[in-house]
Amino acid sequence: KQAEKTVHQKKEQSKTKCRKARRRHINLVAEFNRRQRKNIWLETHVWHAKRFHMVKKWGYSLGDSPTEKCYRACYRAMTNHCLLQDLSYYCCLELTGKENELLKQLARISSVDTGLTFEEACCLSGRFEGSLNLYRADRYPEDMLGPVTFIWKPRNDSENRQLWIWLHPALKQDILRELKAIFQCREPEEMYTPEPVTASVQEEKQMDVVLSLGKKRKKEDKEGERAVPVKKIIGDGTRDPFQSYSWVSQTTGIVISDRTMEVLRYRLIGPLSHSVLTETLKAASLQTV
Fold first, then answer.
1. Do residues 30 and 205 make contact, with C-beta atoms less than 8 angstroms apart?
2. Strands (E), 13-140
3. Left if phi > 0, otherwise alpha if psi is -120 to 50, otherwise beta: which for 170?
4. Any idea what the Cα angle at residue 66 is, between residues 61 and 72, rounded to 5°?
5. What pTM did the predictor assign?
6. Strands, DSSP E only, in 118-277?
7. Of 56, 222, 254, 272, which sits 20 to 30 A from 113 (CA to CA)?
8. What is the spatial distance between Cα 58 and Cα 55, in angstroms, rounded to a whole number?
9. Distance (Å, rounded) from C-alpha 75 to C-alpha 60?
């Protein structure tokens, strides 16, 4: 009787989990944020990390070369189908203000001798994207800063215009410094510091469970810092998240904003690129209030 009683009291053993499931972090968001302390991930990082050799450049973690021999597949996609590239690591600077004032100062860092300028009619209307080389103010043809691409927001009833300039992260600091100088932009007096968004109650409870598992996971990293709770990553690899990201000119009213990692950018190559965009993007119905 005692033996039969013992058999019935035995709990049903749970199925043994695979090694991948046992090694999986209890909170992937917290783990991903911890791994982005030094190098920011793109939106497509997880996809690339499984298929590419990753490199650390310009404050980002980027896919360098594929782990498989897929060069022929990429070439076929470029020539016959569609190939997508993630260019979100390119920096985006937004200029807002009066059109005449913007063109007047931007003419100092560009030249008509190199080709298109910010004043080109096809680009100024906002229908096409332009590209040019930037120089230090009034220093052409010396002191070249680097190539950039730009696009204007189409005109509306307001006299203010918006201009987006895309540039390589290695050129960002020099070009941003030159733009702030020609527009005489300064940081606003009451600078808003973007605080990371706190996690929900459920995520905080999950993080408490992670910290309580002292035997399995360390509460501190190699630098002796406490584990960071689940928070939204604000900023990018070329800017400290607690630095200013907007500058205003008191004389002209021009505003320079850093939109890096806020506006994602993808490049589609191939004859079926427009077909892919047509099937993917749907026009929204305009609703007037």
1. no
2. 40-41, 52-57, 60-66, 83-86, 91-98, 130-135
3. alpha
4. 145
5. 0.70
6. 130-135, 144-152, 160-167, 185-186, 246-249, 255-258, 266-269
7. 254
8. 10
9. 26
* C-beta separation of 105 from 180 below 8 A: no
Strands (E), the chain: 40-41, 52-57, 60-66, 83-86, 91-98, 130-135, 144-152, 160-167, 185-186, 246-249, 255-258, 266-269
Domain extents in the chain? 19-68, 91-188+244-260
pLDDT in tens, the chain (289 residues): 777 766 666 555 556 677 777 667 777 778 788 888 888 888 889 888 888 899 998 888 898 888 887 788 888 999 999 999 899 899 999 999 998 889 998 999 988 888 888 888 888 888 889 999 999 988 888 889 999 999 999 888 778 899 999 999 999 889 999 999 898 888 765 544 444 444 444 555 555 544 444 444 444 444 444 444 444 444 566 666 666 788 888 888 899 998 888 888 899 999 999 999 999 888 888 776 6
Phi, psi of 203 (to 5 degrees): -65, -35
Distance of CA 239 to the CA centre of its chain: 11
- Within 8 A by CB and 6+ apart from 15, the residues are none
Residue type, 124: L
Report the C-alpha gap between 97 and 79 in whole angstroms.
42
